[in-house]
Write a structure and sequence with these properties.
five-stranded antiparallel sheet; Rossmann fold; Putative sigma54 specific transcriptional regulator; binds adenosine-5'-triphosphate; 42% helix; DNA binding; Sigma_54_int_dom_CS; alpha/beta; DNA-binding; Beta-Lactamase
């Protein structure tokens, strides 16, 4: 369930239930829908993100609800299917129009008149109203209880449902229009088109469909075309403009065959058959088309088609095929390939082995480069499916339409060069084996819905296909994102999250299992044939204390870099620059300082007599303690007194060396040279 909430406020319980039902059907589990009857609100506060109240509560609702900024007053429309009966009533017939409030009665009257029911004489009637003449017929939108007993016949046109405009307004406010547009259009388009045709005849065309409907149609990701009985185009959405490279202005009103050859839409008017997911070449493009007749009273009044352009997918597909071929569908790694001996990694391996034995979906979570895929492959190879395929798909690497085809496949002929029998998606390829959905947190919402269905029903339908293919797979998903957070933000379906995270496995970050670093360094040195490289103590310490944001992958890259750039010995300066960035280094440990001091000591020893360096540092330290400056001449003089041969020139070169080790700071002119904190530490630890 999403964390968004919508409150529906009405007068009657019946209306409340009806509106809630309608909203739930559209919003499904994306938004929590709560119902309140106005009289029952009392002192209860409503904390929903959005309130949808019936129109008759305008002006009144403020007395009941405070602190809610967003209130939509529901406009409601009729259930179109019942209008036929009203059309058949004789002209001028007097009819009671019964509703639960005065406002609602007048609203319904005006709505009926707007849709063309203006040939009968509608008399609004509501509870307080007195009936001063006898009328034998009442029309009511679901409020039969208010019809006076004297009335003989009642036509119940059904409760008024939320108008499309209101639904769209709510979806916009809940930030869900993009996601729900496809669903809305399929639900409403047929009804509205039917109505506009039936009630307005053919003289008034697409302008009869309100602007909001057009907005919805234009939001749909597929091209949409609707033709009437005369084969004239009435609806031509923006996506259709793109696919057919033609403006709607040019298309609407024209015969479909004159504008677009080969849509086969006009034949649907005659055959009345449905054609779902056909693959066609239209305007030199590969298009997946679905066509359905639109019927009223069993009479075909038009035909509707949707078009999905798959040309682009085809191009991307080629590259992807190549990549996948390189990859093969086998899992190379086993648990024994996982390098490390820390308690953390050993526990993770143990848990993974336990999980491998079950058949349930596993969700592996961990930072990037921690070895999630390595674990997924090892789990597969440890499971009963080890001899079956292991198919990995990186959900973040592919654009939406390509990912869809990658997962679910295409039917025969979808792409030039595609194999006979179409191309199976990874679900089919992984049949009887394991599918590894890497970066699962990056799957677009639209595909999440399909994915959930495949996981629940254990069957797939290829794009352009009609048959369902049963599949038997074990799913391992991985992500470096916080899926729970994505669910809260509405970016990941909660139901899918629960479906995937049946068995969670957390792979620890490298910085949390430092003991493994030396083992991994050794392992990668062997891998890159650089086993005889010697690391200085400082390098070892730096690699140990580095925070490794890219985890093992970064360590692997680092060792590869070193193996190519260094010979024999690796010094601190040989590491890439970001290894020197303070932000990337964990707070230094005592061992780290010790190692560093050892390194400097051996470096200075190599340069000559270390005593000379220690003498200079000592002189600087004494001067610092006494709060005076000391120059290189004075140091040279004092050295002589102590039987040490150090010319002022020699002092200068040694100071430079000490500065490069950050043990001293050489100041300008009279400022003189100062020992640093690190210099003092070095002195204390070395003497
Ligand atoms: N414990 C380990 N022992 C040896 N090699 C490892 C280990 N963990 C990871 N690797 C290696 O590190 C690299 C990254 O691992 P992998 O691709 O499995 O990480 P990941 O967590 O799936 O990364 P991402 O989240 O970026 O997809 C691979 O080359 C893998 O072989």
């Amino acid at each position: 369930m999403s964390n968004k909430e919508l409150a529906v406020v009405t007068i009657s319980e019946a209306t409340n239930n009806l509106l809630k039902e309608q909203l739930k059907e559209i919003l499904q589990d994306r938004v929590k829908v709560k119902g309140y009857q106005i009289n029952e609100i009392g002192s209860n506060t409503i904390n929903s993100d959005l309130v949808l109240a019936t129109n008759s509560l305008q002006g009144e609702i403020d007395n009941y609800i405070t602190g809610v900024d967003d209130i939509i007053f529901a406009r409601r429309s009729l259930d179109f299917s019942s209008l036929e009966m009203l059309i058949k009533l004789p002209d001028g017939k007097e009819v009671l129009l019964v509703n639960n409030t005065e406002m609602a009665a007048y609203e319904t009257k005006s709505m009926l008149e707007k849709v063309g029911i203006d040939h009968i004489n509608l008399q609004p009637f509501y509870p307080e109203k007195k009936l001063n003449k006898e009328i034998d017929l009442a029309i009511t939108p679901g409020e039969k209880g208010y019809v006076p007993d004297t009335v003989e016949d009642i036509i119940d046109i059904g409760s008024r449902v939320l108008s499309l405009t209101t639904i769209i307004e709510a979806l916009i406010k809940l930030d869900l229009l993009d996601e729900k547009a496809d669903l809305l259009v399929t639900k409403h388009i047929k009804q509205l088109v039917k109505l506009s045709n039936r009630l307005y005849g053919n003289t008034k065309k697409v302008e009869r469909i309100n602007q909001m409907l057009e907005a919805v149609i234009n939001h749909v990701h597929d091209g949409v075309i609707y033709i009437n009985q005369q084969e004239e185009i009435e609806i031509f959405n923006q996506k259709a403009e793109e696919i057919f490279e033609m403006k709607a202005k040019e298309a609407v009103g024209a015969k479909v065959e004159e504008k677009i050859s080969n849509t086969k839409l006009n034949s649907i008017l005659k055959t009345e058959d449905k054609h779902l997911n056909d693959l066609q070449d239209i305007v030199e493009k590969k298009i997946v088309t679905s066509r359905v007749p639109v019927k009223l009273d069993n009479e075909v009044i038009g035909a509707l088609a949707t078009f999905k352009d798959v040309t682009e997918v085809k191009k991307l597909e080629k590259n992807l095929r190549r990549k996948l071929k390189d990859k093969g569908h086998i899992a190379k790694y086993e648990f024994s390939n996982i390098v490390g001996n820390s308690t953390q990694i050993n526990q993770t391996i143990k848990k993974a082995k336990d999980l491998a034995e079950s058949e349930s979906t596993i969700l592996i979570q961990g930072e990037s480069g921690t070895g999630k895929e390595l674990f997924a492959q090892s789990i597969h190879n440890y499971s009963n499916r080890e001899k079956q395929p292991f198919v990995a798909v990186n959900c973040a690497a592919l654009p939406e339409n390509l990912l869809e085809s990658e997962l679910f496949g295409y039917e025969e002929g979808a792409f030039t060069g595609a194999k006979k029998g179409g191309r199976p998606g990874v679900f089919e390829q992984a049949h009887t084996g394991t599918i590894f959905l890497d970066e699962v947190g990056d799957i677009p919402l639209k595909i999440q819905t399909n994915l959930l269905r495949v996981l629940q029903e254990e069957e797939v339908m290829r794009i352009g296909g009609t048959k369902v293919i049963p599949i038997n797979i074990r799913v391992i998903a991985a992500t470096n994102k916080n899926l729970r957070k994505l669910v809260k933000e509405g970016k990941f379906r909660e139901d899918l999250y629960y479906r995937l995270s049946v068995l969670p496995l957390k792979v620890p970050a490298l910085r949390k299992r430092k003991e493994d670093i030396p083992l991994l360094i050794e392992f990668f040195l062997q891998k890159f044939n650089a086993g005889d490289l010697v690391f200085s103590e400082r390098v070892k310490s730096r690699l140990y204390n580095y925070n490794w944001p890219g985890n093992i992958r970064e360590l692997e890259n680092c060792i590869e870099y070193i193996s190519q750039t260094c010979n024999e010995r690796v010094e601190i300066g040989d590491l890439p620059s970001h290894f020197h960035d303070e932000d990337n280094i964990l707070r230094k440990s005592i061992e780290d300082i010790d190692c560093e001091i050892e390194d400097i000591k051996s470096e200075l020893e190599e340069l000559g007599d270390i005593k000379e360096y220690l003498f200079i540092l000592n002189e600087l330290h004494l001067a610092k303690q006494e709060g005076r400056n000391i120059g290189r001449r004075e140091i040279a003089k004092n050295a002589k007194i102590n039987n040490l041969h150090l010319s002022s020139h020699m002092v200068r070169s040694r100071l430079r060396k000490l500065e490069s080790c950050r043990l001293v700071n050489i100041g300008q002119g009279r400022q003189g040279t100062k020992i640093t904190e690190k210099g003092i530490e070095f002195l204390e630890r070395t003497t």
